[in-house]
Structures are given as structure tokens and as C-alpha cells.
Write the C-alpha cells for this entry.
Amino acid sequence: MTFELKNVTVTLDEHPLFAPLTVQLDKGQIGTIMGPSGSGKSTLLAAISGTLPPTFDCTGDIRLNGRSLLDVPVESRQVGILFQDDLLFPHLNVYQNLVFALPRGLSKSEQRERICSGLIDADMDRFDHRDVATLSGGQRARISLLRTLLAEPKLILLDEPFAKLDLQLRGQFRDFVFNRITDLNIPALLVTHDPADHPDTGLLIELETAHA
Ligand SMILES: Nc1ncnc2c1ncn2[C@@H]1O[C@H](COP(=O)(O)OP(=O)(O)OP(=O)(O)O)[C@@H](O)[C@H]1O
């Protein structure tokens, strides 16, 4: 199995935030995590990406492509994250924002080729020198996704990435994201409050409150 959570929960002062979770996702499959506010959805994503604050502990096992991630440092996990706030660097242009994400060791021409082909794919081929502050919400969202994908993640985590987009843009961007995940053939976990975000072929995962 490509991605597995085995009896995973996150504890704060030894109290579990949610009931132990077991999930399996195959390549290209999207798991939609739903649950009440404060149930631990974002904290679970932080445990998977390796960015859990030290006040929390993670128990159980998290496996990606056959190996446990628990002892793997954050920079080696190959887990990409997309948030509802895009976190683009405001003082850099589109190209400069994207070049940061590329794997190390590429030549300048390889960097340019990957970025240009990504921009064409995002229907933004002449935007490389644009100041990110001048982009529309939908354009920012696509650049932000592109930045996540250029890092060649083996798993992608989506923390309410559609929440701030208006209804029409939301549907378009959602399709764009799901198509890229299918093309890359990597598993993805999506946190959302909107059942409409759940793809028909996806796996619905409900976070349940832990019993005392
Ligand atoms: N750094 C922290 N220190 C202490 N408690 C925290 C910290 N971060 C989050 N929490 C608490 O952990 C719990 C889970 O928070 P989390 O953000 O994961 O919930 P969520 O399910 O993503 O919520 P929402 O749907 O509202 O975004 C909450 O009770 C929250 O207050």
C-alpha cells in the first residue's frame, strides 16, 4: 500500500485528540478528512508532514511507500502541503517563488524548463516575471499548487485549500488539483468542511472524538 495510517492518534498532555485512525490510500487516491472544528484535522496533517509542535505526541505508525515516516526528518519526508493561505513570498516574482521548490542540483536550464512547463500546464505561461501581489486569487492558488508539485512530493496534504475561493473558482481549482494528483499518481489527503469537495472516487475519513 502506498500510504498508510496505522492506529494513528495525536496526544496533548497524554490525552488523544481523536480516536485512533487506520487509513490506506493507493497511488492517485484522495482521502477526504472531515470532522468537527478542533477535532485535530490540521494537527493530523502536521504529524504526517513532520511539523507537529513539540507539545504534541504522535502514536501509531505512518507509512509512505513501505517505510515509516515517524523518524524521518521533515525535509526528507517528500510530503507536500497546500494550505488555504498560499504562503507565497510577497517580495519575489512568480519564477522566484517557484524556483525555491525545485529539487537541489538542477542546472539553470533544467530549472527554467520545469517551471515553464508547469506554468503552461497551469495556463499561466507568460506570468514568470509577474509580481505575485498582482495575481488574482485563482492565479495565486494555481501558482501555490504548482510550487507544491515542483518539489516532487510522494504524498500531498491539502488543508482546506479551496476555502477562500469564490464558488466558481473553487470548482475550477478543485478539478485542477484533482487532475494533477491523478496525473502524478500520488496519494493525497484533503481536509475540508465542504462535502462537495469530496471526489466521487475518494475515500471519506471521519475523525471521531476519542473516548475518555
Ligand atoms: N500549538 C498548539 N498548542 C496547544 N493546542 C493546540 C495547538 N494547536 C492546536 N491546538 C489544539 O488542538 C486541537 C486540534 O486543533 P486542529 O487545528 O488540529 O483542529 P481542526 O480539526 O483542524 O480544526 P478546524 O476545523 O477548526 O480547523 C484544538 O483543540 C486546538 O485548540
